[in-house]
Amino acid sequence: MKPPDLDRFRILSGPRLHPTQDFTVFSVSRANLEKDRYDSSLWIADSGDVRELAGVSRVSSPEWSRDGSKLGLLMKVPDDPEAVDDDAERHPQLAILDDPRGGGAPRVLTKFPLGVSKFKWSPDGWTILVAAAEYADSWANLSVKDRGKQPRRITQVPWRFDAASTWDDRRTVTALIDVTGQQEPRRIDIGNFVDIADIAWHPDGSRFVVLAERAHADRTRLEQVVLEVDAASGDVKPRHVDGSWTEVHFTGSRLIAIGLPAVYDWPAPYTLYEIKADGTP
To answer: Using alpha carbons only, how large is the chain's radius of gyration in Å?
Structure first.
C-alpha cells in the first residue's frame, strides 16, 4: 500500500434503517488527496439497489424522524453564506432532507459559528435538540486571521481538548430547532461547560438530558455532569455529578447511562446503570 492508494478506500458509517419501511441510509466518506480533506455523501440501500443520493454531499450522522418522513443530517456548509470558493471554511450544521428517497438539496436550519456536534429528534418530530458551539464574546468579532494571532495566557489546567482546540475562546450551546424553519432557534442556557458528550429526549418530550463536561473545581481534570432540562421552561437540574459516562438514554421513564458511576472507578468494564431521580446510580 502506498499513500496514493488512500483515496481508494471508502468508509461507511451511520447506517440508519427506516422506521417503517425496508430501506437504509448511510454515509460514505473518502480521502480527497488533492484538497487535503475527507469528502462524504449519502447513500441508500433500497430493495437490493444501492445508490448515491444526488445533491447531498459533505454530510454525516443521518437520523430519521420518528415517523420516517424526514431525515436529519449534519452538513458542512460555508461559514460565509456568500462564499463561492470550494475551500471556504466550513462547519457542520443541522440540515433536513424532506425527500429522503429522492435526494435533493437539504434545508439547512442552523448557523452556529463553530457548528453542531450532535442532534436528536423530539418524540413528536416537530423539534430537534442540538448541541453546538460558538465563540466566546471576546473572540466572536475577530477575523480568522486575528484569532490565530491572539495571545493566550494559560492560567489553569486543563486548557485544551484535542477535538475542540482550546476552551477559552468558545462555549457550548444547546438549542431547540423548529423543523419547519419558521421559528428562530430557542437557546437553552445549561451553564458553563466545555463539551457535550451526549443528549437524549424523554419519551413524552417534556424534558431531555445532557451529558456535559466542565473543568473540575481542583482545575486538574474534567468532570461530567448529567443534567435534566425542562423543555418548556428551560429549568436545569443536575441528575448525577462526576461519573465516567459515554452515553445517556431513556428507556420509558428510566434514565440509563453507559459507563461508570465514579471517575476513579476506572479502569473497569463499562456497563449499564439506571440513574434514579435522587441521582443514585
So the answer is: 20
For 142, other C-beta atoms within 10 Å of its C-beta total 14
* pLDDT given for residue 222 in this prediction: 81
Q: Which amino acid makes up residue 257?
A: A
Rounded-to-integer distance, Cα 75 and Cα 115, Å: 9
pTM over 0.85: yes
CA-nearest of 162, 158, 170 to 112 is: 170
Task: State pLDDT tens for residues 107-157.
Answer: 999 999 999 999 999 999 999 999 999 888 888 888 878 877 888 777 766
* Cα–Cα dist 125/255, whole Å: 21
Q: Which helix (H) or strand (E) holds 151?
A: none
Strands (E) across 101-192 are located at: 107-108, 116-121, 127-135, 160-161, 165-166, 170-178, 186-188
| Sequence-distant (≥ 6) Cβ neighbours of residue 44 within 8 angstroms | 23, 24, 25, 50, 51, 53, 100, 101
For residues 210 and 234, give the distance between their C-alpha atoms in angstroms, rounded to a whole number.
12
